[in-house]
């Protein structure tokens, strides 16, 4: 499904703390998907679905990174994909200020 390895410039605003020129669509898939789901807009989401399969996106939501998700965003995507996360996994995934 991936036609290119370079991260699209469009994603720079959701990956502000990363140098996207050094990122790879395959190696950095989890960070890219997480950041787009957390911070992206409709155009970012459409591009994300062109770059990754729904299965790949669901896999990132099923295995959330520690402390990188906004609670409302993770809640939204788990409902959209009908994913049930264990309480401990959920709590570790939520970004706390």
Please sum up the structure shown:
The protein is built from 5 helices and no strands. With 97 residues, the chain is mostly helical. It is globular.
List the defining traits of the structure above:
97 residues; mainly alpha; 48% helix; globular
Notes on the structure:
This protein is mostly helical. Helix content is 48%, strand content 0%. The radius of gyration is 13 Å and the shape is globular.
Reconstruct the topology from this structure.
Elements: H1 29-39, H2 42-51, H3 54-62, H4 71-80, H5 87-93
Could you say which structural class the secondary elements and strand pairing correspond to?
mainly alpha
Strand percentage lies at: under 5%
Extract low-pLDDT stretches. none
The H-and-E topology, N to C, reads as: HHHHH
Radius of gyration: 13 Å
Helix content: 40-55%
The number of helical runs is 5
Biggest pleated sheet = none
| Mean pLDDT over the full residue set | 94
Question: What would the principal axes of the Cα set say about the shape?
Answer: globular
Distance between the termini: 37 Å
Number of strands: 0
